[in-house]
Amino acid sequence: MKKRLPYIIGFAVLLIVEILIALFINGGFVRYYLGDVIVVWVIYLFVKALFPKINSYLTAFGVMLFAFLVEFLQYIHIVDILGLGNIKFFRVLIGTSFSEIDLLCYACGTVITLLIISIYKKIRNR
Hints:
The chain is an all-alpha fold. It has helices spanning 5-24, 28-50, 56-75, 78-81, 88-94, 100-124. It contains six helices and no strands.
């Protein structure tokens, strides 16, 4: 549990930030771009909270691939294909519109995650 605690706390804090962005910010840089960068961190921290021993770098890349997959599923309108298009929760959770910019944001979130992992490992190994 001791190894998981920082991931759990980080996940909870950033999840709250994402919820606040979704509820109270209707547009602009934070809503359209920063939220997509942060969501990569939220998913990364969630996975690490469940499986703290898996490789951090592989986890970061796996999260980016997952985010890309979800974005491409938006491209084919997966919410409507699954018959969930009338349920607002799933429209928000999965998303309904593909954007190349979102892919860039997910990649930026991953790069920042990798930098943080690298810095943390260098500090820890001193």
